[in-house]
Each structure stands twice: as C-alpha cells, then as structure tokens.
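Morning, I've got a small favour to ask if you have a moment. You're getting the sequence in one-letter code plus the fold written as tokens. Thanks so much in advance, here it is:

===
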Amino acid sequence: MPRPGRPRQDHMYSTGCIGIQTGTDEHVLRVGIDVGGTFTDLMLVDDDTGSVTVHKVPSTPADPSVATMQGLRELCELGGATPAGVDQLLHGTTVATNIVLERKGSRTGMITTKGFRDIIYIGRHRRPKTFSIYQDLPWREPTLVPRRHRLVVDERIVPPGDVVVPLDDDEVRACAARLRDAGVEAVAVCLLFSFLNPEHERRIKAILEEELPGVHLSISHEVVPQHREYERFSTTALNAYIGPKTSEYLRRMHGALRDLAPDTDFHLMASNGGTLTVDGAVSRPAQLLMSGPVAGIVGGIAAGRSAGYESVITLDVGGTSADIGVAPDAIVRMKHLYDTNLGGYEVMVPMVDLDTIGAGGGSLARVDAGGLLRVGPSSAGAVPGPACYGRGGTEPAATDAQAVLGRMRPDARLAGGLELDVEAARAAIGRLGDKLGLDLTETAVGITQILTQNMVNAISVNSVQKGFDPRDFSLVAFGGGGPLYGADIARELSIPRVIVPPHPGITSAMGLLDSDLKYESQRTVMVEAPEADAVALEAVFAELEAGGRAALDADEVADADRLFQRWADCRYVGQAYELLVPVPPGPLDEAGVLALAEAFEQTHEREYFYRFPEKAVQIVHLRSYAIGLMPSVTLRPIEAGDAEPPADAVVETRPVVFAQGDDRTPGELATPFYARDRLRAGNVLTGPAIVEQLDSTTVIPPGTTARVLPDGAIVIDVTTEAGA
C-alpha cells in the first residue's frame, strides 16, 4: 500500500464526469464500506485528486460479504476504476455485535484456575432490578460458557508473578480431551494473575493447539492483560463466543476481496475509533463489538468541522436503528472501561461513547396489548423492508409514514434501484389506522411523532443527563433517515441548527476513510506514584510502543505520519475505579511521574469537584496508542450561486403534510422539491421545502431556513427568529 499522508502533486484535469478525474497513471484510491441492517454504503476517494464517488446497495444479512463485493464492483465501475486498483479498503461491520445481541455465538469451553470456574456466573452481584428477587440476570441467561464446559486446572500464580503451584501438562491434556468430546468450537483460557505472568496461559495455549486443531482459542493475557478477574474472564469468554463465526465471516470477506483485488490493504473499524488488520480482528474479535456505529461519529465530526462547527451531536438514522453520539469540541468521547458492556455481558475493551436505539426507517408500527401505538424496535430490515419499497413488505414502517405524508415523491429515485410504492404504504398505514380508529394522515403523523420523540429522548439522555447543553451544539443528521427527522428533533431540544452532509446516507463510509490507523496495547503495573520506578515504567512503555511500531511498519506508514500517545489509568489508593490521564511527553522520569500524579488530581477535581491531597496516587494501567495518520476526506467545492436557487433545481411542487400552529395540527402545504445536485453554494431555501438525492431526503419544515455551503452541505436554521 502506498504510504498514507503523502499526496502527489501531479497535474490533474476533469473528465467532466461527476467525482471522476484522470491525468495520472498512479492514484491513491481508498474505499470505505459500511454495512448496515438495510443498506451497504460505499465511498471511493482518490487522495491525489480529491474526487469522491458514492454508492449504495441493499444489504444481504445472510452473508454481508455478498453485498459488499457486489457494491465494490459497482462502485469502482462508477468511479472509473477497478477493484484491483484500490490501495486500501476500510470496513465497518456489525457482525460481531449481532452475534452477541442475537445470542447466536459458538459452543464455547473454558479452562481456568481451580476454584474459579464460576466467576463469569457470579459476576459482581449487580442486579438490573434492585428490588426484584425474580429476574434473569443477563450474564447468566444464557451464560457464555455452560458450567459443564468450564474446566479447571490446579495451578496458581500470585503477585508479582510468582509461580506457587506449577502447571500440570497432563491435566491440561485431559481437559482438552473433555472439551473435544463436548464438541466445543472455541476455548477461553482465563487464569488468575496471568496479566502479571502469562507463562501458564502460554503453555496451555500450546497444548490446546496440539490437541484441538481448528478450535478458536481466546487467551486472557492476549485479549485483555489487565486486573479484575470477572471483567477479564467475561471479555475473554465473549471473545471466544463470537470468535469462530466472526473469523469465518472475515476470512470469507478477505478471500473474496483477494479474488478481486489481491494487493488491496484491508482494515476494519475497531470499537475505539481506530482500525484493525484482519489478523488482529480474527485473534481479538471483541475489538469489533459496537464498532459499526463508530464511523458515523467520526464522519459526523468531520462534517461539522467542515461547516465551521466544532461541538456536534451526531444522529445516524439507518433502516434498523439510530446511533447517537455527543462530541464536544470535536472530541470523540470514550466510555469508562468498566461501563462497557453489550447485551448484559461485561466487555473490558475501549469503546466510543455512543448510544443505539431501535429507531430507523424500517421500524415497524403496531398496536400493543393496551391499544396504544408503538413504533420499533422491531424492524422490516433489508428484506422485505418497508411496504413502500415494493419488495413484499406488508407491515407499516416509519418510511411508509413519511411516504404517506408526501415527503417522498413516487417518482423519486431511491438507493439500490428501488422504486417507491406509495399505494402499498397507504394500504399498510391504513390497516393500522383502522385498528386505532384514526384516519390515514393521523396515523402517519402519530408514527412520525413517536419515532421523533424516541430519538429526542435518547439524545437527551446522552447530552443533558451527562452535563452537556444541547443548545451549545449543532445536530449533524445523516444516514438514510437522519435528514428526514433532524429539524423536528432540533426544535424539540432547542438545538440551533442542523447540518446535513453532502452525502448523508454515506457519511459513515466517509467516517471510515477519515479514521486513522490505531493500535492499542496496555499493561497492568499497579504502583504508587511517589515510589514508582520511573525507569521500569519507561521500559514498559518502550515495550508497548515496539509492538505498535511493528504494526505501523506492516502498514508501511511513513515516519512523518506516525504518532505515539501514552496514557495511564490512575486512582487514589483505596478507590475501586480509575480515571484515564495523559502521560507527560518525553521519556518518563521522576519528575514525569509526579506530573502524572498531579494531572490525575486535576482530572479528579474536574470530574468530581474535589481531590484528596493526603492520599497517594496509584498508577494501575499503562496504555500506548500507535497511530498512523491518514489523509482526511476533503470534498471539492460545488459551483457557487446566489441566494435564489436555480429555476431548474425545483423538480416539482406538491402538497406535503406538516404540523402547523401552536397546537401542531397537521395540514397540507404546497412544498417545492429540490434536486440536491442542482443546488449551488450560497442558495437559501425557505421552509417548507424538501431536498431529494439518491441516498437520503432532507425535510426543511415551515418556519425554518436552510443555506447551502461551499462543500455542498446544507445547514438548517431552526431558531425562532428563522421562522419570524
């Protein structure tokens, strides 16, 4: 792969085709592919010319790689390239996440220290419902590893890594035989204090490789070399549980890519906002958990920054779900390492702080047992999809409601070559309305308002309840459905503006291409700052950074494009949890250790409004990040115009239903429909108006105005003054 971050200076000229430029024999081509529940989004970027080509195809849930490879071929054809000419492909996937949520993991076994086989069952005695004595605890029902498959060996290592009871190889082989007879597909190896001395785990791994060839192995010191037995055991077991099926998908995907593009560098989005190699993802698939929505936050931040706004709330509404993130000052916030869980299981891997709810274009509307209208979380998915897609769906979905309200034209082109069947949508919504005793319009408005309020509530939880005032942010609305709901959501939360990126349905794919290569490694050290051996800590960092440097070497990242960051998890002695603190730059010495302790105390005071100067600061973990800086995606400016949009930008004016007046009574208003590719920078649109494009539809409600930015983004002003 050509070294990233070094654009060539060859002369280019435009062929006249949108997003395609030629004039050089060698281009640096990168592709981002984001697989969603309904559509697979693709973006091709030429880093030399800045040209961008986007595409969208229906997802294939049974085997996501089918849609991915089909989309890649079609994308390259649209962009005047070939798959073999692609230098790098970055992929975001929800395969690992879905395995956990659907409880469809592999049959898993475990080998652990004698007396500790039930750690993953006991947990930490936390109860989801404090006062209920009759409840299924999520980490128990079902448990990741059935008790009959949790086997023990008589060994013991104690701090600082001393062997008290040596490992018996014959005992390990006997465990392997039992697991073989049980037909397990994966084995988790979790021994006490292996993060201090992995000798026994390494020996067990070697024996299992001999005795159980082809079985996926998950070794705790390789997956998460940190203290806290329950979280480490749970993470390692989950890594094993998802390992075989995730690995099978990645190998199938990688093999299909090799057939098309044998020299293309292939990376996957990780849950920490960085990327992974295929080998890294196969050995540690837990790093892919919740990685799918992460690219959306990265892309949303880039869109906000391009529009001139740093602090953004990102709203990515797809066909099945809505992903919400809050990024103050364009900073991606991370979850606390001990607050990261999925499906009730503890997962001690770094994750971007985001929330996902079951609210999307395919969210199904229904009448519950009490006779009330409900929307989501069940979805029509990619197949058959909403009724208006004309693919056999009969249940009413959120997109059907938008079609009934007139916000999507029957003649509009949809992504994936779909044609809008408004009559099917009206029939589906009408049947639901009959059950509720409501007419067609009332039912459609009710569905839209409920889905909007679900997203408003989720944004409030992730902003207001975490100390952020939505009025200080801009809402970046993207995904296929985000621009349909963005303005109404912003009004409810008093967010002053909505930013709709140039390619809202492909923004997550753009986020993949805007992500840097990122490799993380960590080590538990458990020392107190005043007496800590700075030389020993520096040696640990040097060892961690050597591994990251090797990974960047394999990616052929130029020295000028490398960045190494050092962080430490610190706490006061006696506290149960840590805060993540940056380590002072330069080689770590005694002064650096004291500066690290002071940085922790300042962070603690900022987070909790007090500090304990009489207590010693404990350094628990050291973390190293090796980052390969990638070129940002910079969209070329569109043609400039004046405030009045071109006459040919209006493709049709037709009645659309909007809530009007103080009582928000729904009624029809004559609404112009604009073709987005005909709008010019500087154009101002006054609501009501609707902007169409292949991958999304933007609603500009009455009382709002919108302006088109030089890069083609649309900013909707939803303040009271805008409607005056």
Observations:
- The two ends are 55 Å apart (CA to CA).
- Residues 518-628 form one domain.
